[in-house]
Structures
1.
Amino acid sequence: MRFDGRKALRVRMDHKQAVNLMGSDGTWRRSCVLLDVSQTGAKIEVEGTLDVLQAKEFFMLLSSTGLAYRRCELVWIDGTMAGVHFINAGSKRKSASAKVGAAQTK
């Protein structure tokens, strides 16, 4: 189902799906509820303070053991709601190698 004019197909959660956010260095963790999700990102409702999201990059833990997770970056915050973009390891490598290639041609 597409809504809000988004390019990616989003799935809205009918039931509360508890997930956790964790700092990439492991120093913080926040409980949250997954409201909708797509291949490229998600909308979440965060419990507690949002100040830790200023780190911009963190992990979304999809299982209680932490074995299922997505690397994320913050896109927007509105009250207790936040939008995150999932970071692909392949896209990070491409952008890094593209920068190296551009620097070498100068």
2.
Amino acid sequence: MQERFAHTVVWLLRLQAVLSVLGALAFGLLAGVPQALAVLVGGGIGVLLTAVSALRAGAATSEAEPAQMMAAFYRAMALKLVLAVVLFVVVAKWFAGYFAPVLTGYVATVLAYWIALLRLGRAAE
């Protein structure tokens, strides 16, 4: 079970990175290098948040009680929320003029969750 979880997380992180780079390339071609870098920063935030929350949520072993697994999940999501606020506040100061591309990069990583859900749904059929 842990191996499948780890495989899914790695697949998701790769997809998020690819979507971020594709978004950065599009912004780079259409709007310029500063916007492309801002997209990469937003995508990097998304990838980092996914990695941190997956590591924390996956810390509970498969032998753990369901309550322990849920507690690990909730702690991971709380940590993710706090980190997201801190990172976006810091990035908002550094990329004040380019915050829309930062959000675009982050949204690209959120899109990866929907793609992952479709993939897992098809695998369950």
